[in-house]
TrEMBL record:
InterPro entries xref list: ATP-NAD_kinase_N, Diacylglycerol/lipid_kinase, Diacylglycerol_kinase_cat_dom, Lipid_Phosphate_FormReg, NAD/diacylglycerol_kinase_sf, YegS/DAGK_C
Keywords associated with the record: ATP-binding, Kinase, Lipid biosynthesis, Lipid metabolism, Magnesium, Metal-binding, Nucleotide-binding, Phospholipid biosynthesis, Phospholipid metabolism, Transferase
Protein name per the record: Sphingosine kinase and enzymes related to eukaryotic diacylglycerol kinase
GO cellular component: plasma membrane
Required cofactor names: Mg(2+)
PROSITE patterns: DAGK
Gene Ontology biological-process entries: phospholipid biosynthetic process
Annotated organism of origin: Defluviitoga tunisiensis
Residue ranges constituting the DAGKc domain according to the UniProt record: 1-139
Keyword Kinase among record annotations: yes
One example GO MF annotation: ATP binding
PANTHER family given in the database record: LIPID KINASE YEGS, SPHINGOSINE KINASE
Length: 310
């Protein structure tokens, strides 16, 4: 029966086009050797094909969808699962085999990097329920909505991500992010930001960057929200004041181990809903995908996504 089959949604262009070779030479052979897995697969061809193919697969009856690509491909599949109205979202399980440059989400959830191990966990049928974030934002003068499962970044972080995405065919994510982080330090102009968390004003100042996390890692291994727990029903919010370039460079190592949040210029909060207003336009990225601008409204949906884990 089709509901017993896994539908792999493969982004062949992930990792600068190397994802197709990884699928053909490493992942697909492992799948065909296994007698325990029944599966079909489809390829994306253009942006948001992951959403379209996932929606079509759910309509056909697939109840296990596995992303083969980066965090962006996975985000599209997740949005299809949560927007579709054929079944309850928790009746659909999502998994990921990372072939893209940005595979930060799996680090928190515990999905292995090794392809053989990744295929093996698909046989075990072990699941967790994780929280999902929903954000409203403005794009082309219209209010839009997007779900996310890892981290949303605003301001400086969104600018760095946008520049890294433009160059992702040439550089690995962690390297690309780090290079563009340093370059953007000399051009980005912080703006005054007003943040309301669970109905209370928690911040009203000039901010360099903001991150709202369900999970811990982004930017190729950086930890902007190191204390985030994927199923506790709360966002972790990290705000960095408008600090000097020298302070940022001195704390780069702290971004990779999470210790930078101890800096007096860094503020952290936990909340179920977060509203962000800004004096100038503040841009947004979620799960590594560049979106629109402020104002933003964030809402957490506790334990809404069924995830295949090891």
């Amino acid at each position: 029966m089709i509901e017993d089959k896994i539908l792999f949604i493969v982004n062949p262009k992930a990792c600068g086009g190397r994802s197709l070779k990884i699928w053909e030479k490493k992942i697909y052979p492992l799948l065909t050797k296994s007698n325990d897995l029944k599966f079909d697969y489809v390829f994306t061809e253009k942006p948001f094909d992951g959403f379209r193919l996932a929606m079509k697969g759910i309509e056909k009856g697939y109840r296990k969808l596995v992303s083969v690509g980066g965090d962006g491909t996975l985000n599209e599949i997740v949005n299809a699962i949560l927007i579709q109205n054929f079944v309850e979202p928790t009746e659909i399980a999502v998994g990921s085999i990372g072939t893209g440059r940005g595979n930060d989400w799996r680090k928190t959830i515990g999905i292995p990097e090794d392809y053989n191990e990744s295929v093996n966990i698909l046989k075990n049928e072990k699941y967790i329920l994780q929280d999902v974030g929903k954000v409203r934002y403005i794009q082309n003068k219209k209010e839009k909505e997007r779900f996310f499962i890892n981290i949303a970044g605003m301001g400086f972080d969104a600018e760095v991500t946008y520049k890294a995405n433009r160059k992702k065919e040439r550089l690995a994510t962690s390297l690309s992010y780090s290079i563009n982080l340093v370059k953007t330090l000399f051009s980005y102009e912080p703006t005054i930001v007003n943040i309301i968390a669970d109905g209370h004003i928690v911040y009203n100042n000039k901010a360099l960057t903001l991150n709202i996390g369900i999970c811990r890692y982004s930017g190729g291994g950086m930890m902007f929200t190191p204390n985030a727990i994927y199923n506790d029903g709360l966002f972790n919010l990290t705000v960095v004041d408008d600090i000097s370039i020298l302070k940022i460079l001195a704390n780069l190592r702290g971004l990779y181990n999470g210790s930078f949040i101890k800096n007096p210029s860094v503020k952290t909060f936990r909340a179920k809903t977060i509203d962000v207003y800004s004096q100038e336009k503040l841009y947004l990225e979620v799960d590594g995908e560049s979106l629109g601008h402020s104002p933003f409204h964030f809402e957490i949906l506790p334990q809404t996504l069924k995830v295949i884990v090891g």
